[in-house]
Specification:
alpha+beta, Glutaredoxin, five-stranded mixed beta sheet, 11 strands, 48% helix, globular
Length: 446
C-alpha cells in the first residue's frame, strides 16, 4: 500500500502542478475559456462571466497548491477532499464538452415569447491552456480530455480513501517522493517545451525545506501552503500584469504570420454523381473531374446522388482570421505582412474596454516610429465611428484597421497591446504596462 500511495502522490502531484502552472502562465486566456463555458448558449451561467478572471486565477492557484500538498503530505484531509471534488468537476465538464450536441437548441424568453437558439459547443476544454496545441500541434479532443480525467481519478481515489496513512513528510519521505516527482515534472516540461515549472518547483520546495527546518507541527503545514500560494500568486500576477512568460499561440514572438497563412491548403476531394440511361435504365456513377453525361439528353441525373470523397485533408491555418480591413472595406492584410518597413500594430481589442492610461506612452512611441519610417496602425474589432472617436479623444495620430475580436484576443492578452511586425514575422509584443521606448522596440528588429 505504501508503494501504491507513493506512486499516486507523485503522479497526481506533478500533474496538478504542471496543469496549474500552464494555466497560471496565461490567466486571461483561461478566463476566456471559462467565458465560453458560462455563455447562455453553453452552460447557461452568463452571470458568472464578470467573475471569469477571478475564478480562473482561483482554479490555477488551487491546482498548484494541491499538487504540492500531495507531494509533501500537508493537510491531507482537506487536500484529498479538494482533489476529489476538483477532479470530479473537471470530469463532468469534459463529459459535457464531449457529449454536447452541435445541432441542439435551447430556449430563451424574448419579450415574453419563447425563442429557440443554437447551442454553443466548447470544442476545447482548455485543460492545458494553449500548451498542447503550441507544443504538440493539437489539443486534446473532448473525449481524450475526459479519459485523462478518469485516469487521474483512478490515482486520486487511493489518496482519498487512505489519506490517514499519509502524514506530513519526514526527511525520508522527502527523499522518496520529491526527486522522482521532479523527474516526472521535468518530463512534462520537456513535452510542453517550457522549463520554468521545474525551476519554480525547485524554488518552492527549497522554501518548504527551510520552513520544515525552522517550524514544527501543523504550523509547518499551513506555512508551507501559504508559501506555495504566495509564490503561485506572484507568478500568476506577473503574467497577468505583463504578458504570458511562455507564449504558445500562433502570434508568439518569432512566429511568421505570413508563412502560417501560406501554409494553409484546401482539402482535396473527389465528387461523384450518378446518371440514369433512359434507354437501358442503367444507373452509373461518374467522377465530375472527368467527362460525364450532364448535357446528354439520353441521361438523367439521379436526385441526391452526389457523393464527396476526401482524398487528402486540408491544412487549416491557425491565423486564417487575421484579416485587416480599412474603413473603406479594403483588405490590407497582404500589404501589412509583406511590407518592407517595420509595422507597429496598436491593438485595441474593443474600444469600450481599452485602457487609456498608457495612451500617452503609445503616442510617443508611434510618433518616433513614424518619424523613422515605420508604419503604425491601430487595430480593433469595434466600429469605425467608435475608433475615430477614441482616436481623437486620445490624440492617436495613426489610422485604425478592423480585425476579428477573437483573433485580437489570441494575438495579445492586453487591451491595448503592441505588436511589432517585420516581413510578416512577430518581432516584439508589449503589454499596456510595458510600452517600450523607440530604441528598445528597434532592438527587436533583425
Amino acid at each position: 500500500m505504501r508503494i501504491l500511495l507513493l506512486i499516486c502522490r507523485i503522479l497526481v502531484g506533478a500533474t496538478f502542478i504542471i496543469s496549474g502552472l500552464i494555466k497560471a502562465n496565461d490567466p486571461v486566456g483561461f478566463s476566456i475559456k471559462l467565458e465560453e463555458y458560462f455563455a447562455a448558449s453553453a452552460l447557461g451561467l452568463p452571470w458568472l462571466i464578470p467573475y471569469s478572471l477571478g475564478l480562473a486565477m482561483l482554479a490555477c492557484l488551487a491546482e498548484v497548491v494541491l499538487g504540492f500538498a500531495v507531494l509533501v503530505g500537508g493537510r491531507m484531509k482537506l487536500a484529498t477532499w479538494s482533489l476529489l471534488l476538483l477532479t470530479l468537476f473537471f470530469g463532468w465538464l469534459t463529459a459535457y464538452t464531449a457529449t454536447c450536441d452541435p445541432q441542439g437548441k435551447y430556449e430563451v424568453m424574448v419579450n415574453g415569447v419563447a425563442e429557440l437558439r443554437d447551442v454553443t459547443c466548447v470544442t476545447d476544454c482548455g485543460c492545458f491552456g494553449d500548451a498542447m496545441k503550441g507544443s504538440l500541434g493539437r489539443s486534446l479532443t473532448p473525449w481524450e480530455s475526459f479519459s485523462k480525467d478518469m485516469v487521474l481519478l483512478v490515482f486520486v481515489l487511493p489518496l482519498f480513501f487512505f489519506r490517514r496513512r499519509i502524514k506530513f513528510n519526514t526527511w525520508g519521505d522527502d527523499l522518496a517522493v520529491l526527486p522522482i516527482s521532479m523527474v516526472l515534472l521535468a518530463f512534462y516540461c520537456w513535452v510542453f517545451a517550457w522549463w520554468f515549472p521545474i525551476l519554480f518547483a525547485v524554488g518552492v520546495l527549497a522554501g518548504y525545506m527551510i520552513i520544515k527546518r525552522l517550524v514544527q507541527g501543523s504550523r509547518a503545514e499551513w506555512m508551507t501552503a501559504g508559501w506555495v500560494a504566495v509564490a503561485t500568486i506572484a507568478f500568476m500576477w506577473h503574467c497577468y500584469a505583463h504578458l504570458p512568460m511562455r507564449d504558445y499561440r500562433p502570434y508568439a514572438v518569432g512566429k511568421s504570420i505570413l508563412e502560417q497563412k501560406n501554409d494553409a491548403k484546401p482539402p482535396v476531394n473527389l465528387t461523384y454523381v450518378s446518371y440514369k440511361d433512359k434507354r437501358t435504365g442503367e444507373v452509373k456513377e461518374y467522377l465530375t473531374s472527368q467527362p460525364y453525361p450532364w448535357n446528354d439528353t439520353n441521361f438523367v441525373n439521379v436526385p441526391n446522388s452526389t457523393r464527396v470523397v476526401e482524398v487528402e485533408p486540408g491544412i487549416v491555418s491557425q491565423v486564417q482570421d487575421f484579416i485587416l480591413m480599412d474603413q473603406d472595406g479594403n483588405d490590407l492584410t497582404e500589404d501589412v505582412l509583406n511590407m518592407e518597413k517595420p509595422v507597429l500594430l496598436v491593438v485595441d481589442k474593443t474600444i469600450s474596454e481599452t485602457k487609456t492610461r498608457c495612451q500617452p506612452a503609445i503616442n510617443t512611441l508611434a510618433a518616433a516610429a513614424e518619424k523613422n519610417g515605420w508604419k503604425v496602425y491601430g487595430v480593433t474589432s469595434s466600429s469605425y465611428d467608435e475608433s475615430e472617436s477614441f482616436r481623437h479623444a486620445n490624440q492617436n495620430m495613426f489610422d485604425f484597421l478592423t480585425c476579428d475580436e477573437v483573433t485580437l484576443k489570441t494575438m495579445i492578452r492586453s487591451n491595448p497591446g503592441l505588436v511589432l511586425l517585420q516581413h510578416g514575422v512577430v518581432r516584439g509584443k508589449w503589454h499596456c504596462n510595458d510600452v517600450p521606448s523607440f530604441a528598445a522596440a528597434k532592438r527587436k528588429l533583425r
